[in-house]
Amino acid sequence: MVVEGLPYPTKRIKEGKAEIIIPDPDAYRRKDGVYEPAWAPVFYNPRMRFNRDLAVLFANAYRELAGLERLVVVEPLTGSGVRAIRYAVESGARVYAADIDPDAVHLARINVENNGVADRVTVERADANEYLARLKREGIRPSIVDIDPFGSPAPFIDTAIQSISVRGVLAATATDTAPLSGTHSRALRRRYDVKPARTAWEKEQAVRILVGYIIRRAASHEYGARILLAYYADYYVRIYAEIRRGASRADESLSMLGYGVYCPYCGYTGYTDTPSHQCPYCGGSLQVVGPLYRGPLCDPELVKRMRRLAEEENTTLAEHRRITRLLEQLEAECSITKPYYRLDRLCSILRMNMPKLAQLVDALRARGYKATRTHFDPRGFRTDAPHPEVVNTLIELRTRPDQV
Ligand SMILES: C[S@@+](CC[C@H](N)C(=O)[O-])C[C@H]1O[C@@H](n2cnc3c(N)ncnc32)[C@H](O)[C@@H]1O
Ligand SMILES: [Zn+2]
């Protein structure tokens, strides 16, 4: 399809309730046939639709929860404009969008016109940080600032926080999961000022490090940060934190920080306030990572509302089943803050065959503990049982599988 004024082949697609023009994916495929969004003149990643579906559900649930008549959303890295348009069409929001790339701004404006939301969505060519600072000077009070960059959101976090006047949500995507999960330790130190380590719960570590970073940055500007929703999907971390002005709120949020620990000798996972390097259970040398956030990863009331809205919107959501499953799982995990165990790793340390995950979860519950699978890893489970109890339950399952 050729669109006047666009010097590249395009395609018209539907996403949610928006209809948008994107660079034709067929023109930007690798040799193996896989579409490479970064090669296209304007960035549009169809795999991020899941992220955007949840963003719209979140926006609607947050609007209800906070009792807001109308949302004001700022999206300073907008690409094709798809996310901004969806916030306007599906959440009725007033949206301020920007991108540094003139091709992106041009296409996003065409998309805004075509969706009939030009009265509600403005798209400007600007650097994200300058744009956020300018909106603040102009007195715009965002209810949601959505930071969806290439790689790390760290360079935009300070201005995004400061752009929130009294109360609002910072939503951030991070695709730099290698540093966050402990693989590129120097980048982790540079970007997030975190002491690196390798744990068996690296996806949760990635989420908790980014949340911890947001809390620390928010505190330095005298804001508190409360996590409404945080998850890991595909190859990225996504966080929604409610930012509220106030020194005592900042202190309260800081009190949720600590260090994560993992013992590669006995499988112990947990947190500590003072980074000790000796495992309390086997005396082995601990892996210690942090600072990171140790509190709940979602607000149950918000997730409940998102689930209800997902039911109502089941025809517009591309992966309705996947969304419902994630929200159900997050709700179940929310009240257990200790990091997840990887059953395969734990069984290998204990030199035993793996029982079925469901069997272990049931056995832990039968002993009076909370236990559930985790959205982070299909081989993972989380529980509030102390480490020796987890080990004892596993050993008992091995010796008397039918009687636990
Ligand atoms: C991952 S894409 C955004 C995708 C979009 N949010 C979505 O949901 O489809 C990142 C965008 O940020 C833009 N960008 C990169 N650096 C920027 C900066 N400093 N200021 C503003 N935009 C920037 C890029 O041009 C690109 O369009
Ligand atoms: Zn140990």
TrEMBL record:
Zn(2+) binds at residues 263, 266, 279, 282. InterPro entries: SAM-dependent_MTases_sf, Trm1, TRM1_arc_bac, tRNA_met_Trm1_C. Coiled coil: none annotated. The keyword S-adenosyl-L-methionine applies. Pfam families: TRM (PF02005). It catalyses: guanosine(26) in tRNA + 2 S-adenosyl-L-methionine = N(2)-dimethylguanosine(26) in tRNA + 2 S-adenosyl-L-homocysteine + 2 H(+). Signal peptide: none annotated. Keywords: Metal-binding, Methyltransferase, RNA-binding, S-adenosyl-L-methionine, Transferase, tRNA processing, tRNA-binding, Zinc. CDD domains: AdoMet_MTases (cd02440). S-adenosyl-L-methionine binds at residues 52, 83, 99, 127-128. Its EC number is 2.1.1.216. Gene3D superfamilies: N2,N2-dimethylguanosine tRNA methyltransferase, C-terminal domain (3.30.56.70), Vaccinia Virus protein VP39 (3.40.50.150). SUPFAM superfamilies: S-adenosyl-L-methionine-dependent methyltransferases. Belongs to the class I-like SAM-binding methyltransferase superfamily. Trm1 family. Dimethylates a single guanine residue at position 26 of a number of tRNAs using S-adenosyl-L-methionine as donor of the methyl groups. This is tRNA (guanine(26)-N(2))-dimethyltransferase. It comes from Pyrodictium abyssi. The gene is trm1.
